[in-house]
Amino acid sequence: MSVNLSTQTLQFRLAPINQAPEPSILMFPTLLCQIFNVCTRHPLPIISDSSMKSTVVLVGEDAELLCKVTDLGRHKVAFARAGQPPRLISFDEKIFRNVQKYELRSRGGPQADEWTLVIRNAKEEDRGNYTCQVNTDPVISKMAVVELKIPPSVSRNTPSAVEVREGHNVTLNCKAEGTPEPSVIWRRADRQIIRFNGATGYGATIHKGAQLDLIRVSRKHMAEYVCVASNGIPPDESWTVRLMVTFVPHVLAKHDTVSAKRGSVARLVCDVESWPRPEVTWERNGNFIFDSDHYATSQIVSQPYHTSHILEIRKVDIDHYGNYRCIAKNENGHHHADIHLQTDPDYDGNHVNTGTMEGGADDEDNRVESYGDSTRDRNVRNGGENEEKRDQEIKATELKQALPSVSRSVFQLAALSLFILMLW
User: Fold this and answer.
1) What average pLDDT does the chain have?
2) What is the per-residue pLDDT across 203-242, written as a single tens digit (0 to 9) for each?
3) 25-149 sits in which CATH class?
4) Average pLDDT in the 372-396 region?
5) Is 25-149's fold the same as 254-372's?
């Protein structure tokens, strides 16, 4: 590569790395003195063995390359970046390329024989080979390698969400870069075991490797998976992938039959597992039920794919008895469950009746069920209290009846004792 040293049209070429030296501008002073036979014999310059040591720096820091030359005389020192062709950075005491990137400290040290090239704010593109050259004939040079320590980074091409149909296989990839090459591990964000083969197959809390293969995924695989890349250079970097498993809705009634007396409040509950989230409707005798003065619908989300749906019937009347259907539908299909509401003369008009099942929304269901049983429990407690009170009253009456007899006996015993003393 041709480089202008000054306003003159002087051209030169640097010696390529690891190749036989070629004629260079650095040899120009030597050639002149030989042509005119005015050369004075001096010791040849020597680049010290302690010079140009390869270095590893953290990205963003400055890298320094020291070149110590003894017996330099009238020769010149140059720094170049290896390449095809080499790129001149400095010559003697002048920077020729990117003065914001490079700094030259010339003729330093006790003997004024040290040249230091500073690479400011080292970046990925600054990695590579650098040479220190002296314009002798032939040119002498020494090479050093600049390497960087780069913290890990996860490729932004890694998807943040993956969707798969239940029963299929899926692979999650986490592509990470850095120097040294980072290692990658996977874990679930909820700290649960990662099942590699089906919902109940073998698994582990940590998976090592950039690729995570899951076989025959089920809805239980639905979670956030975190990949963590590390290479010993802080900070580590993580990336979260949300795995969504789609499947046909499944509906289950908490109770197939719910009893309620006229005038009371009844709640029919069905639990639905579905992804995507389903559209849930209630029907009776083929007619959709909407919120009104008589009906109110609500739902409780307990897990990403699990919801509880409640149909509240206010002031149950004879027309409300019969069969109700809870229907869930998503893009994968639909499913339903039936609940029968019947009369129950054992409950009073203030009773709240509910259908429940094991599953989500435990706190709400327990609250509803406890409310539903409160009247009966209160009657049972009151009945027990009344019976205990009657037993206490009977015992008190018997005690009162016994007290006169006891008093008379005590009085007679005292009189007999007094009579005996008088005789004595």
Assistant:
1) 81
2) 999 999 999 999 999 999 999 999 999 999 999 999 999 9
3) mainly beta
4) 45
5) yes
Asked if pLDDT for residue 304 goes beyond 80, the answer is yes
**CATH architecture of the region 155-247:** Sandwich (2.60)
On whether the pTM is more than 0.90, the answer is no
Is it the case that residue 409 has pLDDT exceeding 70?
Answer: no
The pLDDT assigned to 108 comes to 87
**pLDDT of 303 over the 90 cut:** no
Average pLDDT over residues 245-253: 97
Structure tokens, 235: 């900070």
Distance, in Å, from the CA atom of 417 to the CA atom of 422, rounded to the nearest integer, reads 9
Tokens of 185: 């591990």
Neighbours of 298 (CB within 10 A): 12
d(CA 106, CA 76): 11
Closest CA to 139 of 84, 83, 91: 91
Map out the domains of the chain as residue ranges: 25-149, 155-247, 254-372
Cα Rg, the chain, nearest whole Å? 47
